[in-house]
Design goal:
Length: about 725
């Protein structure tokens, strides 16, 4: 039979195997299976390093049998193995370096006949520990052939070669996946090559069929490297072509131009009590020039914590307002939206009093719309938005609702872009008469390859220098189990409060009836704000004015607490990560992060950015149980060693899996990007960007390369939600 990449596996492998592949791994077609690449390769004599295995991990290891010993045991009462004595077979396997692993089989002594000393095999199971020794209990295994004519049922096609180890399941071990791949590879003729032939030949890349065979059945390390390079190039080029084509399409749309300057912007600039940083001036000039064009701006504004992004965004909004348009600022939480509303109104002063007696003629209204607003509160806001009296509209997802109608929406500013979905962004853009200009802001530093990949259809700007008046932040790791250090931690908080300043205490969860699966296997659950605030009130911080803030509070209560804290009526705010971004209280100088090892690098960097925002130095204390030398402690030490958010972002990328970087919401990306590493393959990503640009400029519809165009369309249309960045 003729088998193509689109052929269903049921037709090739039979119902039972096909259903196992579909249910366990989501593989339905021959193309799906051949795109299920091995995640590593084993080889007789390779250094698997059995000593590096972690207890609880599901592993597949290549090892050699050293000995098989039969023992008897008496089951303990209540263990369900019946009465009398049982048989135990212990098989010792070892890697090339001599490190051993014990395999245990209960009442299966017959396995000793095939698990004989000297045989190599693949052994799969969950790592456990018994009396100080690592072991696999009743593992699945597959012996490797001793030679090509070995009749023992071993995997003879692996004789003398690299052995692919696949992502697998307990019901579908790697060797069963390997056998299915072997069958399909033999039936699929050389598939059409989707990469444009001129590019492939110029770069010296393998053809598609050869690459598939060599990724699954590599003849050597050299062939394997060539196959990976070719398949990575395909992933990168498809992805970058989608981004380049989308960017080109956006550039062809018509938008309303808003000339540089304008009365309200000029009046605002004249009142600024400080000079803009050089970065703010340069980025502001880029944005101003783009707003003045007749095509929509699509720009990503990256700014490290405290770099002054909000001021840059406000000046862009005022440019639009000055020429009759409206600007909408979309924030992910009510706390952040309310913070933006307060800070922007304060910065504008009477320029935010549009329509009021005595206000400057160029003034506008700045309104806030959130989901918790009552009908009576919403009515005047909606009227101001509809008539255009409100030039700046700040809100949460409530801005997306039906009934929120803009007079002339010209600019959409999205804060903390990664927290919004495609439909939400498009719903706001759809409220404009023409495609609006879009400014995407993030305070999370983004490594260059991630920006090029995930935000590749946007122009990017970076703010790296801090405005004048920002104070340095010192960060230290505090061992939770050291009472002396902990006492000093709370003493420091008291000292800052006694000096007239304020503090934050951050916990990883809310508490109460909240469930927390992440802490289910730990010795104790993560600390919760509802518990910690009571403990601090009764003991360590008794006598101080403590406030409580978390995401499950009523919105009015959240706003009341934040206003009280900003007004200095609360000494210490005990909170979850709801304060992670945007919260600006210059008088707050110290932050204590409890269970700090439960937060990521970027999140910790964002959190500590809430202190040191005024004239006094900031102090961030990372309280942790992580022991010296552990990965968690190394992560905390890295955060303590630098305040350079972009350097930390690169480190964060090194320590995380690619899927974590791409994010759960970007499943389309992950389904197309299987080999390409945003960390290790920056050269391929950058080069593919150049090639994609040339391809799209020469042939926007990619008519000359239909197979490649089909891959691009599949990613863009079916699974490209992650690309919709505004």
């Amino acid at each position: 039979m003729t088998v193509g990449l689109e052929t269903r596996l049921r037709e090739v492998l039979g119902k039972k195997t096909a259903e196992a592949l579909a249910d366990g791994l989501g593989l339905d077609t021959a193309g799906d299976l051949l795109g299920h690449y091995p995640f590593r390769y084993a080889q007789r004599g390779d250094r698997t390093d059995l000593g590096s295995l972690a207890i609880g991990d599901d592993v597949t290891v290549a090892a050699q049998v050293r000995a098989a010993v039969k023992k008897t045991f008496t089951p303990r009462p209540g263990k369900g193995r019946g009465r009398g004595r049982g048989d135990l077979l212990e098989v010792i396997v070892a890697d090339e370096g001599g490190k051993t692993l014990t395999l245990t089989f209960f009442n299966q002594g017959w396995r000793a006949k095939e698990l004989v000393a000297g045989r190599w095999g693949l052994f799969a199971g969950k790592v456990a520990q018994f009396r100080g020794r690592l072991q696999l209990n009743s593992p699945q295994y597959q012996l490797l052939a001793e030679d090509a004519s070995d009749p023992s049922g071993a995997i003879e096609e692996f004789a003398g070669t690299l052995i692919p180890v696949y992502p697998a399941t307990a019901e579908l071990p790697t060797w069963n996946v390997a056998k299915a791949v072997h069958t399909v590879l033999g039936l699929v003729p050389s598939p059409p090559d989707p990469l444009p032939a001129p590019l492939r030949e110029r770069l010296g890349l393998l053809d598609y069929g050869t690459a598939l065979h060599q990724i699954h059945r590599p003849e050597s390390h050299e062939y394997l490297g060539a196959a990976k390079k070719r398949l990575k190039w395909q992933e990168a080029l498809v992805m970058q072509t989608v981004l380049v084509r989308r960017k080109a399409e956006s550039a062809g749309e018509a938008a309303d131009p808003y000339p540089e300057g304008g009365a309200i912007l000029d009046a605002f600039d004249a009142r600024l009590p400080f000079a803009l940083t050089r970065g703010q001036q340069e980025v502001g000039a880029e944005i101003a020039a783009e707003l003045a064009r007749e095509h929509p701006m699509h720009r990503l504004l990256q700014g490290d914590v405290g770099s002054g992004k909000t001021l840059v965004a406000l000046r862009a909004m005022l440019q639009v307002v000055a020429h009759g348009g409206q600007a909408a600022l979309l924030a992910p939480t009510e706390v952040l939206a309310a913070q933006h509303h307060r800070s922007i109104a304060e910065m504008l002063g009477d320029l935010a009093n549009g329509g009021q007696l005595g206000a400057p003629t160029e003034a506008t209204q700045v309104v806030l719309l959130t989901g918790s607003a009552t009908a009576a509160q919403r009515r005047p806001v909606l009227d101001a938005v509809r008539t255009g009296a409100a030039g700046i509209v700040i809100g949460t997802h409530a801005l997306l609702y039906d009934g929120v109608d803009f007079a002339d929406l010209g600019l959409v500013v999205v804060d903390e872009q990664h927290r919004f979905g495609v439909e939400q962004r498009d719903a706001l853009r759809a409220k404009a008469k023409k495609p609006p200009h879009t400014l995407v802001m993030t305070a999370t530093p983004i490594p260059r390859t991630v920006a090029m990949t995930v935000y590749g259809d946007l122009e990017t700007s970076r703010l790296t220098e801090l405005p004048a008046g920002r104070s340095p932040i010192a960060t230290h790791v505090v061992p939770y189990t050291d009472n002396r250090w902990m006492q000093r931690t709370w003493t420091r908080v008291r000292e800052e409060v006694a000096a007239g300043r304020q503090a934050y205490v951050v916990c990883p969860r809310v508490g109460g009836d909240e469930t927390d699966d992440a802490g289910a296997s730990d010795k104790r659950p993560p600390l919760a704000v509802t518990d910690v605030v009571e403990e601090l009130r009764a003991n360590q911080l008794s006598g101080l004015r403590l406030g409580l803030l978390h995401g499950r509070l009523d919105p009015d209560e959240k706003d009341r607490v934040m206003r009280a804290y900003a007004a200095g009526e609360i000494d210490v705010l005990v909170a979850t990560t709801v304060i992670e971004v945007g919260v600006n209280v210059p008088n707050a100088t110290v932050m204590v992060v409890l269970d700090a090892e439960r937060f990521g690098i970027s999140q910790l960097h964002q959190l500590r950015g809430r202190v040191g925002r005024g004239t006094h130095p900031g102090l961030c204390l990372l309280v942790s149980e992580a022991f010296e030398g552990s990965p968690s402690r190394e992560r905390l030490d890295a955060v303590a060693s630098t305040t350079d958010g972009f350097a930390l972002a690169e480190l964060d990328l090194e320590q995380r899996r690619e899927g974590d970087v791409l994010g759960a919401a970007q499943s389309g990306m992950k389904s197309h990007v299987k080999l390409l590493s945003l960390l290790k393959d920056a050269d391929i990503i950058a080069a593919s960007r150049t090639e994609a640009t040339a391809l799209v400029e020469a042939d926007p519809e990619l008519k000359a390369f239909p197979e490649f165009a089909a891959l691009v369309d599949d990613l863009a249309q079916d699974r490209g939600e992650f690309l919709e960045k505004g």
